[in-house]
Each structure stands twice: as structure tokens, then as C-alpha cells.
What we know:
heterodimer; A: globular; B: mainly beta; seven-stranded mixed sheet; globular
Amino acid sequence: GENVEQHPSTLSVQEGDSAVIKCTYSDSASNYFPWYKQELGKRPQLIIDIRSNVGEKKDQRIAVTLNKTAKHFSLHITETQPEDSAVYFCAAINYGQNFVFGPGTRLSVLP
Amino acid sequence: NAGVMQNPRHLVRRRGQEARLRCSPMKGHSHVYWYRQLPEEGLKFMVYLQKENIIDESGMPKERFSAEFPKEGPSILRIQQVVRGDSAAYFCASSPNGGDTEAFFGQGTRLTVV
């Protein structure tokens, strides 16, 4: 089955700096790669996703890149703000299979 | 369109009792996933169900745990003879077509075993 690794496990950045979180996956058949943000005590919520036929996607301060050959994808957050502080989870999905999440990255944005 | 509804939000059970956690997916969604989350930890996959079928239960302990998603009504995760180690947040998520679109999460059920 799919196995997703995620680095780093914790990340602290100064407000206004950029943050990058990287994930690798094992199943080359995976074709959907969402990123979820979970604030303390709340449910995970999708912030951006990418499909295997696309190499990069951007939504305001958030971007995701995908390298299918190397089987890794990354989340980029620019101009970080205190409200970006949360735990971020990546996932890799092959159609018809369950959502396999990475172990999470705790991002702290320091004022 | 109401979101994914889980109930109860909080559940307290004594050791040895049964816990039933309910998940009503979003309208039009026929795929449900259950996850367990311990404090400060990640989302551990438990079971993936489609209406009336278990697709993947590889993450669910074989003893004391069961799940169903009947043709009518919510998906239910059942934990028999609960132990302290079952205390966690249990999240369900639903999607319309099983894997290449967003899965929406419910607010979770926080189970405390005393």
C-alpha cells in the first residue's frame, strides 16, 4: 500500500518569511495529492490540492509542486502570517484507495 | 448542503463499555473514511467504506472494532469493551467518488475512557 513521508515534523519561521514542507510517496499509481491544515482542536480542512497531470498549482500565498518522477510534492507558503500556525498534513491517493496521510508538520509563525 | 456530521462530539465511557460513533456524510457522498488521532499526533487510517461495503479495513484492530455504512443512515464505528488506550479523537471524512477529489472531514468525536 501507499506510504507517505513528510518533513520536517516541526517548522518555525518568522512572520513574513516563507515555509516549505516536503512529502514523498511510494505508490507510483497515486494521482491525487491534497494538503490539509488542522488548527488546534479543529477538523482538518483542505487548503490546496494537485493532480498528477499538473506540475504546479498556486492559490494566493499557497503553492504546491509535484515531481512524479521523483515521487515527491511540496507545499510552499509565502509571506507567512500568525494565522498560518497549524499542523499541515499531505496525502497521496490512488483512485479507489483510502486517503493515506503523512505524519504532519507543525508550523509555528513567530511574530 | 450540510457538512459531514459526527455525533456525539464528546463521549465518555467506562472501561468495558461500548462506544458507538456516528458519521453522516455530505449529501451525495457515498465514500466514508475513519481516522483516529491521538493528541499531538497524526491521522491514523482505520477503515474505508462505501455504501454497504467495506473497501479497506487494514488500519482497524481486528478485535473489538467494527464499522458499517448501511444503505440508509449514518456510518457507525463501534468499539466494544473499551480500554483507556482507546481514548482519542475519531474523525470521519466523506468524498463523492472515492479518491481523486477532496475528502471533507467532520468535527470529530472525542472519546474518553475512564
